[in-house]
Amino acid sequence: MTQQSVATSDKLDAAVLKVAGVVVLGAIMSILDVTVVSVALPKFQSEFDASYARVAWTMTAYTLALATVIPLSGWAADRFGTKRLYMVALALFTIGSGLCATADTIGELIGYRVLQGLGGGMLMPLGMTIMTRAAGPHRIGRLMAVLGIPMLLGPIGGPILGGWLIDTASWHWIFLINLPIGVVALIYAQMALPKDAPEPSESFDFVGMLMLSPGLALFLYGVSSLPEAGTFAATKVWAPMLVGGALVVAFVLYSFKPRHPLLDLRLFRNRSLTIASVTLFVFIIAFMGAGLLFPSYFLQVRGETTLTAGLLMAPQGIGALLTMPIAGVLADRVPIGRTVPFALALIVVGFFSFTQVDPQTSYLLIEGSLFVMGLGMGGTMMPIMTSALRTLSANDVARGSTLVNILQQIGGSVGAAVMSVILTNELNGSRPIPGLVDESGKPITEAGLAIASQQRPELLQQMPVDPSLIERGLDFAAKSFATTFWVAFALVVLTLVPAALLPRRRQPAQLDDVQGEQVKTPVVIH
């Protein structure tokens, strides 16, 4: 075959692009839904009269559901066929979105988010499998460029779209917008995707799934109940934490026994995988947990509209958009031990400004800090994941990718729960206003009234108070955010320790030596 014909064969033809269109539609829904909801958390607080730790479960439950179905999707795709399962995932996500818009309580919304996450968690790994089968492994780089569009634009467009929908319509529309897209995607998938060819599949570790997912959910539920209970001695705190912790420990001990465990922890014998996974896990807890709080600071302390808060988050996404392609190229040429620590250092520098926030902090400083953090983020996550998988054998790549991506989702869940608990606990320390109680009879605090008045100025006419009290409440709220950011900042700094152990010399990639061997498609998740 001539060089010219090889180049031509590498191009994505119309049939492949048609399949890619289905996958991109699914990716857009799944990725946008993570970032869109980030600006809606304060709205959920006021709408459902719930604490920040409680409404953060709309994110925690979603990411835990994602983590649950990542390993299930590969087994189910073999067992039932990729087209059929992809359409089921689209339907679950679309139905879950519609139900979310009908929620009357925060509990209902959290439950519907789980359903949405079960569908959304299968869309990306199944989409990668479908695209790889359609185009062949030799064109995976071009396919990733196509799929990378929603992955790069999601962090920028999501908060802006969410803010615009909430301000111009209502919070319901951040979910309702998925309905027409989902219907179009289902029709498109039925027409464009090739027929299913189910094949024998490996056994699935249902026992492991029944230990890990409920264990994490129970443990994090106990943690998130702490601000309301006020003490670890409360049954609703220690009981779920104890049962959840026991289930997670039992899962770890059990996972070394099955031939095909839910998570193959034996892969941690690989030093490169272990170091990269620890680095990624700690980083995700800090960065994703604190990232949920950035829009809340703009809304609750600075009194911005939801759309403005979304726009103010854009510099972070723009920074990541600039460095992610560069980091992808460097990951193949330069050992990540020489690049990732510098990217993390950028995040540390940018993050420090948020530990100093007050009600009058310069927006120029904040936006510059978000941009610098975005530059660092773009050079951190994908190179670390590449390093984690690079030295694995061909047969271990799919399991290693599943392991790393589940750790990423669990880290996001832990970060959302822990950071929201810290913020709620700090805000609960605000002084109550004598004689003022809410509808449930609980005292209204200075910080609580100040935050509420930022979004609903008419409250100050219904509850006339000294303006200095509102000023004091905003100062307290800002300090609560700053304290939470200090915890996240310390965790990001801690990430530099395992990052210093990342390989500083070029590693031989075992996959580069595989010739003609069919390798299972690795899971790629956002």
TrEMBL record:
Keyword Translocase: no
Places the protein is found: Cell membrane
Bilayer-crossing regions: 12-32, 52-73, 85-104, 110-131, 143-166, 172-191, 203-223, 235-254, 275-294, 306-327, 339-357, 363-382, 403-423, 481-502
Sequence ranges assigned to domain Major facilitator superfamily (MFS) profile in this UniProt record: 19-507
MF terms (GO), sorted A to Z: transmembrane transporter activity
Gene3D superfamilies: MFS general substrate transporter like domains, Multidrug resistance protein D
Superkingdom as given in the UniProt entry: Bacteria
Predominant location: membrane
Record-linked InterPro entries: EmrB-like, MFS, MFS_dom, MFS_trans_sf
Keyword Cell membrane belongs to the record: yes
A Pfam family assignment: MFS_1
Keywords, comma-separated and alphabetical: Cell membrane, Membrane, Transmembrane, Transmembrane helix, Transport
Recorded GO CC terms: plasma membrane
Membrane topology, as annotated: Multi-pass membrane protein
PANTHER family the UniProt entry points to: BLR6921 PROTEIN, MAJOR FACILITATOR SUPERFAMILY MULTIDRUG TRANSPORTER MFSC
Protein name as it appears in the record: MFS transporter
Species this chain originates from: Micromonospora arborensis
